[in-house]
Amino acid sequence: SSDNFINIVEVGPRDGLQNEKSIIPPATKVELINRLGKAGSKIIEAGSFVSPKWVPQMAGTAEVVTAMDKLSGVTYQVLVPNEKGLENLFALLAKHPDSPPIDEIAVFTAATDAFSKANTNVTVAESLEILGRVTRAALDKGIRVRGYVSVVIDCPYSGKVTPARVRDVTKALLDMGCYEVSLGDTVGTGTPTTVGRMLDTVIGVNPVRKLAGHFHDTFGMGVANALTAVSAGIRTIDSSIAGLGGCPYSPGATGNVATEDILYALQGSQYSVPGDLEALVETGFWISDKLGRDNSSRVAKAIRAR
Ligand code: HMG
Ligand code: MG
Fold first, then answer.
1. Distance from residue 79's CA to the centre of ligand 1 (Å)
2. Which one of the ligands is nearest to 56 CA?
3. Average pLDDT, stretch 147-165?
4. 239: Cβ below 6 Å to ligand 1?
């Protein structure tokens, strides 16, 4: 039933690539997005309209999303941190009135001031004010808005995070009009126990079907934490092809749980997940090769070694 359908938000082209030091050619990013869409990804985070001084790798996002194939049935999103980013996106959309390259935006804040300051130069309260304006302006143009809360378990700057804080920031994002809020274990230190405890608190106040799980796999807990979220009633998981990625403002954190690992973990279960595992494995090795990186998906490596 649709109640057992797990939505996957493929964050590889954004979260996966944003931390790469050498600038990846736009053509490679375009091909990655196109391959993911052909492999059955239904929601793809294609890039960010952030400051190129803060995250140089995402500077070419307008060019990338203009050049990519816009597959029907696939939703394309970009990250927008402030009004300047939204202005830049609107300018791009105005150039393509008949075929908007981007369907939705994602806004992002954090559960701690220290992380929010490091990531976007404002406190959480200040960021919620900015994002309230961004969200209203996007909704006015018929663009849906997703929200992110970072550091839902641990903060690299201020330590252990109180679940009540995550609950309240999540509620603020939903109240301003986000259709869904993705809960980010940015550092990747969470376990089924700490994630479960955090979710209990967040779900006490926020509808579980408006939540998503975003688990970085630094400690190898990504799959376990994603399944914990699914057991709690969450039906949207963010994942990254080949487990690529990391946040520039979370030192030492690795990529998101690999898309291939999530698909494999849910095979044969009562849950259905979109995506062609074989084609995704192929795509994961292709991009890892392009980046000169080891493929971080255990499943992909095991399948290839057969
Ligand atoms: P700031 O320096 O405070 O910005 O940065 P400002 O408003 O003072 O403006 C300074 C300059 O930047 C100005 O240009 C602006 O025009 C320009 P100047 O006059 O000096 O030439 N500027 C912009 N340019 C392009 N696009 C924009 C933009 N905004 C201002 N949108 C700012 C504030 C938010 C811009 C900056 O901190 C920033 O871009 N941060 C983004 C950080 C980021 O992308 N982090 C990674 C994504 S979040 C993440 O990975 C976590 C997640 O995966 C979940 C999880 O794992 O937890 C989502
Ligand atoms: Mg992330």
1. 10
2. 1
3. 98
4. no
pLDDT tens-place string over residues 74-130: 999 999 999 999 999 999 999 999 999 999 999 999 999 999 999 999 999 999 999
What is the per-residue pLDDT across 252-304, written as a single tens digit (0 to 9) for each? Answer: 889 999 999 999 999 999 999 999 999 999 999 999 999 999 999 999 999 99
Angle at which helix 222-231 crosses helix 192-203, to 10 degrees, equals: 30
- Neighbouring residues of the ion ligand 2, judged by CB less than 5 Å: 15
ipTM of the complex: 0.98
* Ligand 1 neighbour 120 (Cβ under 6 A): yes
Q: Distance between CA 191 and CA 207 in Å, rounded?
A: 22
C-beta of 82 in contact with ligand 1 (< 6 A):
yes
CA 14 to ligand 2 center in whole angstroms: 9
In tens, the pLDDT along 12-37 reads 999 999 999 999 999 999 999 999 99
Q: Note the Cα 39 to chain centre separation in Å.
A: 18
**CB of 85 closer than 6 angstroms to any ligand 1 atom:** yes
Residue 134's contacts (CB-CB under 8 Å, 6 or more residues apart) are 80, 82, 83, 85, 86, 105, 107, 145
Measured CA to CA, the distance from residue 77 to residue 73 in angstroms comes to 13
Is 155 catalytic? The answer is no
Q: How much distance in Å is there from the Cα of 9 to the middle of ligand 1?
A: 22
Compute the distance between CA of residue 265 and CA of residue 260 in angstroms, rounded to an integer. Answer: 9
> Rounded to whole angstroms, how far apart are CA atoms 120 and 118?
6
